[in-house]
Amino acid sequence: MSIVKDIPSAKKPLKRAYVGIFLWFTGRAIQAAAKVDKEVKKEFDNLPDDFTFSLGCLPNGPWMVIGKRNGAVKYLGGNPSQHKVHVRLAIKSVDAAFLILSFQESTALATARNRLITDGEVPYALAVIRILDIVEVYLLPKIIAGLAVKRYPKQWSAGRKLGGRIGIYARTILGI
Amino acid sequence: MNSVPVFAFTCPVKTNSGNKALEHLPVELAGLNACRPLIITSAKAVGRKAVRTLQNAFGDSGMTLGLFDGVTKTADLGLIEHLKNICLEKKYDAIIALGGYDIVDAAKVLNLAVSLDTADAHKLSPETPVRRHLSPLVVVPTAAASGLETSKFAHFSRRIYSSEYLAPNLVVIDPRLTRAADGKTIAATGLAALGRAAESHISADANPFRDAYSFAAIRFVKENLPAAVIKPADKKASLAILNAASMSGCAASDANSARLHKLGQVFYEMQHIPQGVIMGMCLPHVLGDYLQEGINDLASLLLPLVGEDEFSRTPAAKRADAALAVLGRFLADLYGALGKDLPRNLREAGVPGYIMEDILDVLDKDNEGPYLRTVVERIAE
Predict the structure, then answer these.
(1) How far apart are CA B296 and CA B205, in angstroms?
(2) Which of B43, B70, B220, B280 could form a disulfide with B191 if both were Cys (CB 3.0 to 4.6 A apart)?
(3) pLDDT at res. A172
(4) Domain limits at B79?
């Protein structure tokens, strides 16, 4: 018998499922927010027409892919290999993704802690981060969103928040 | 700060430290073109929980890990030969050393044997030429570390292998693994780091890059060791001590003066007393002698020890003495907090008299042998 044991790496199904569901929902919410929120729409307007970005975790996913096609923003599923991706935001492990997406670490803090890798143009990546921050503010209650984003927007009116939330949740659930 | 006209400094070690740092390992290994690592450790020394924590960090990576958890203090080149053959047969492409001291030394020598594709590892010696980069080596230190884990040295089978290619590519310091079982373990790690960093910091051939490492190591130990000793499970304090140990190894790699290291190493090799315990005993004597000799800049120790305010309040001519006084008080507090757990001399450490002659014989072979003998005599009782 060898003195060296071979051990296959374990699976983390619960964390992977949480991250997968979160990315799926957020992807659909970004598609919805591009129609509901003017600021998100403006960010996407400034990006090239065939712009595509992905967000997910290394080495084996899950991922979400968002693309701009003929001026409309679409959630393109969870397989980045099927698309030409301009910006890839990769979280180094499913555990790091869980820390970020369960709001134990904000995106800015996770970046500072070297948990994110960005492939692509930095200005485009920053636009993506701004879009994600806005969508998180719409999707999450203030107390949780405050943990997820660098600065919670205080200047937003109650009408924008409430109207935007209803619009984004409705469109996300219906997939329109 | 005075600029040094000519110097060289090398530190090839990347450090990942902090919460969930271990979970970045699969990506870091991929960056080193490795996908099938072999973990080298001692389950007895680091504990089964630490091994499981490291294994779990690879969850969802799809990698298959090799695990050898039987490194002992008596590991020799026969074991290295056996492991080398297994590595080549099973095509492991990276080595991860979990723990400190002999575990990391064995991993460094194994990496040397595997990377050079040595026909017989028994023929490896400190004279073996190492002229190229070796396979990726990752070190994951636990609370019982010597600081030399990050250095270019490997002390194995009473031989000292030295090459900048022996230093690890990556050190991962995770707070889940740095918590100590008792105050003595973390005190020994901290004192070893302090000794190495202090000796590097004051050496006559100091340079600004090395100073940056030694300065931070000294300050980390001064600010965090008392808390870590009182509460060994304190994640923040123990993480800081392991960071200090890691930095002290980088600084020591580059330094020439190593009296404290030599004394710590000989007692570790012959009596398995943690290096920090001996270095703590010798620190006031050796630094005091450096002050007498007047070659080393003892005054430069004061700034990392006390901070900017007290440093600037102390007249330049009194800074060396003040540094020694601060160190003396720091050590006294440490010994006070640990009581009999941390021996103050060789008698309390349980070094038998009949071993002393063997130890002195080994020290006599060193070019500073007569001096080192006087230090051993001073810490005997």
Answers:
(1) 9
(2) B280
(3) 82
(4) 14-177
